[in-house]
Amino acid sequence: MPTPTSIRLLIVDDHPIVRQSLSALLGAFGAPMQVIATAGSAEEALVQAEQNPPDIVLTDLQMKPTSGIQLIQQLSQRQPAIRYVVFTASTQDEHMLQAFDAGAQGYVLKESEAGELVQAIKAVMGGATHYPAGLKRALDRRQQQPALTARETEVLALVAQGLTSKAIARALDIDPRTVDAHRANIRQRFGLDSSAALLRFALENTAGKK
């Protein structure tokens, strides 16, 4: 029988061995940890959380077809009381900021010691946060970044539509090399390490804008 102070956990990871290892690890700590369910996908997690609401969802970040970030966003709308700890191998500032913006209260790297994961879960359950020191630096850099120029805003809006540099150049009547330069400037300024990251940034920052 769980005690009133038990921390009810839902573990979400698309690798069975990770789910099994985490369940065994956290179960070995005993009270107040209680793994009530595991899920191999965000879709399965949504069902599990509906059937048996957890206090904390411990989720991987990079899952398909629905990521850990999308899981947090979707589940937060359905069950606002649930809290989230991201457990991931990614050290990228972009991913840390996405987790923070989505509402995750904790972010723990898979290379961390078991004690740090337990500490993060307890901190989040107590209403605190647990993030790597790099989050503050990433937030500071984001706040210091200048706004997009008018032309960069136009390019970003067309990137969000999935257009290639050549298509964007035709739409804006500029040289494709100029488009590539704008794309490179945006990526460098916002710490976007790939074209896919640029596309995600474009989608997140042009949604609902005319």
Chain-wise SSE layout:
Blueprint (H helix, E strand, L loop, with lengths): L6 E6 L3 H14 L3 E7 L2 H10 L4 E4 L8 H11 L4 E6 L4 H10 L3 E4 L4 H12 L8 H11 L5 H11 L4 H8 L3 H14 L5 H12 L4
Parallel strand pairs: 1-2, 1-3, 3-4, 4-5
Helix pairs in contact: 2-3, 4-6, 7-9, 7-10, 8-9
Notes on the protein architecture:
This protein is α/β, with parallel strands linked by helices. 54% of the residues lie in helices and 13% in strands. It has helices at 16-29, 42-51, 68-78, 93-102, 114-125, 134-144, 150-160, 165-172, 176-189, 195-206; strands spanning 7-12, 33-39, 56-59, 83-88, 106-109. A five-stranded parallel β-sheet has the order 2-1-3-4-5, with helices on both faces. Strand 4 (83-88), helix 4 (93-102) and strand 5 (106-109) form a beta-alpha-beta unit. Helix 7 crosses helix 10 and helix 8 crosses helix 9. The longest helix is centred in the N-terminal third of the chain and has 14 residues, at 16-29.
What features would you highlight for this structure?
5-stranded parallel β-sheet, alpha/beta, 210 residues, 5 strands
Instruction: Write the element-wise H/E pattern from the N-terminal end onward.
Output: EHEHEHEHEHHHHHH
Q: Average pLDDT value? A: 88
Q: What is the strand arrangement across the widest sheet?
A: 2-1-3-4-5
- Going by helix content, strand content and strand pairing, the class is alpha/beta
What's the total number of strands?
5
Major sheet, described briefly? 5 strands, parallel
Content of β-strand: 5-15%
- Helix content estimate: 40-55%
First-to-last CA distance: 55 Å
Provide a count of the helices: 10
Outline: elongated
Radius of gyration: 20 Å
Which regions are unreliable across 5 or more consecutive residues at pLDDT < 50?
none
